[in-house]
Specification:
- It is globular, with a radius of gyration of 19 Å.
- By secondary structure, the chain is an alpha/beta fold.
- Helix 1 runs parallel beside helix 10.
- 45% of the residues are buried.
- The chain is built from ten helices and eleven strands.
- Strand 9 and strand 10 form a beta hairpin.
- The protein folds into two domains: 88 residues, Rossmann fold, CATH 3.40.50.10860; 123 residues, NAD(P)-binding Rossmann-like Domain (Rossmann fold, 3-Layer(aba) Sandwich).
- The protein binds NADP nicotinamide-adenine-dinucleotide phosphate.
- NADP nicotinamide-adenine-dinucleotide phosphate binds next to helix 10.
Length: 282
């Protein structure tokens, strides 16, 4: 049976370490500040921001939520982002995605200074990841890497297969695995015979959002399986992995819920404190 990679427990540990770092910063009169920009009333976004607010409270991070109306114009949104960009007490800024369709997401993200881009979505930070230079990294891929590390499995020379090629999960996760000396294959919706790739994976990361996509027959015995997907089945949150069939084949498995979800939030706290301490992780 696979060892379950307990993201909830690991996230708690990371948050406790973050709180200690925040206490040290406060002794130097620095209080890390994180601003959330929420546009409209998308229920999932409201819930996500609320849970990130709570994590900030647990870690002693000052957090501000700027809740803007659905009807805001691009210019007004960029003005609001500009104010936070200039505020020296705000170390990190997070624009909760998605934003309403009439707004230009890329242009809005470009208004976040790269050194305050806690989500690691700014083109500058994405570029540093490609170049292998220091920069802020996206939180879900950081959480994926910490879960791989938790397994204790050596990454060097291992074959990692990532399913999903988005700019926020799949691609950065693949680049971080490459940085950790894995040989990396990226699969996506046009991949022919997905199973022929997944069966070769020593480390399998699934970031799709399709319940039951990964079944036991697609997994190499003993593999590390990280499930970053989120889907809903009968009102229940599930991942991409069919836990029942995969659990008896994989060596390690990150569950949904309780795997990548809490890790993503914990990494956000770490990124914020890294910025407040004046250093980037790269
Ligand atoms: P996305 O932009 O929709 O990307 C999904 C990727 O999956 C795409 O690259 C797509 O391929 C690929 N794909 C779709 N169907 C496939 C199939 N049948 N076989 C192989 N690949 C397939 O989503 P995302 O933003 O990357 O997020 C991925 C998942 O992670 C979602 O479930 C999301 O909710 C979850 N997520 C979780 C967290 C967290 O905190 N735990 C954070 C962010 C995202 P194409 O490129 O060809 O379309």
């Amino acid at each position: 049976m696979a060892v379950i990679l307990d993201g909830k427990m690991l996230a708690k540990r990371l948050e406790e370490e973050t709180l200690q770092r925040v206490q040290k910063l406060k002794e130097k009169n620095i209080t890390p500040g994180l601003a959330f920009i929420l546009v409209g009333e998308d229920p999932a976004s409201v819930v996500y921001v609320r849970s990130k607010n709570k994590a900030c409270e647990r870690c002693g991070i000052r957090n501000v939520t700027v809740h803007l109306p659905e009807t805001i114009t691009q210019e007004e949104l960029e003005n609001e982002l500009g104010k936070l960009a200039r505020d020296p007490e705000i170390h990190g800024m997070l624009l909760q995605l998605p934003i309403p369709k009439h707004l230009d997401e890329a242009a809005a993200i470009a208004c976040i200074p790269p050194e305050k881009d806690v989500d690691g979505f700014h083109q500058m930070n994405a570029g540093t990841l490609v170049n292998g230079t220091p920069g802020l990294r996206a939180c879900t891929p950081l959480g994926i890497m910490d879960l791989v590390k938790l397994s204790g499995v050596e990454t060097r020379g291992r074959h990692a297969v990532v399913i999903g090629r988005s700019a926020i999960v799949g691609k950065p996760a693949a680049l971080l695995l490459l940085e950790a000396d894995c040989t990396v294959t990226i699969c996506h919706s046009k991949t022919v015979d997905l199973k022929s790739y997944t069966r070769q994976a020593d480390i399998l990361v699934s970031a799709v959002g399709k319940a039951g996509l990964i079944t036991g027959d697609m997994v190499k015995p003993g593999a590390v399986v990280i499930d970053a997907g989120i889907a809903r089945v009968d009102g229940k949150v599930v991942g991409d992995v069919d836990r029942e069939s995969v659990e008896s084949v994989a060596g390690y498995l990150s569950p949904v819920p309780g795997g990548c979800g809490p890790m993503t939030i914990a990494e956000l706290m770490v990124n914020t404190v890294d910025i407040a301490e004046g250093r980037y992780r790269g």
